[in-house]
Amino acid sequence: MAMSSLVEMNHWDFVVASNDDVIGIKKGPTTGSGKTELHRLSAKSKYSKFTLQTATGLHLSTDVDFSFALTKDDDLVCIKMQKCGAGKTEVHILSKKSNYQQFILQTGTCLHETNAAHWAFCMDQNNDLLCINRGPDTGSKKTEVHRLDAASKYQKFNLQTGSGLHLTHFPDKGFWKFCCTRKGDLACIG
User: Domain total for the chain?
Assistant: First the structure.
């Protein structure tokens, strides 16, 4: 992957909404609003029209310290991996009802601080947060899944396991993306 592609990757993140709209999250380093922005492309229009373009309640998030996911209600989950006040990976959820202006949860989790080269994140159908340890060092010698329980406000794991997938840490193993299907399966794209 070319260095310019890596830089661009740090400026945007993408998630798919419950109705199959694609949401581009513009992290920065600059945006028109001076904040992290959300740009929603409509599935109904075959992704040719925006249904929402707005600044969010989150400051610029250009650095690789942030990852993004959506809850089943399309609230925006902002996962802060490093430089966390709590000293642990943090979850900050912006509500869809507020057009992503207001946080409905801001908390440290029970997971230590992480980084984008070794960790990836996605939400399952229960709003549990899947924390995917890509490696290079895992107890199972495989890519691992550590699932944080939504009911505990991400204070407890309800699953920690090695997967059937080899280690996937970046850059040694290429670039892997992870997402949950509507049935809760983990899709691994590399």
Answer: 1
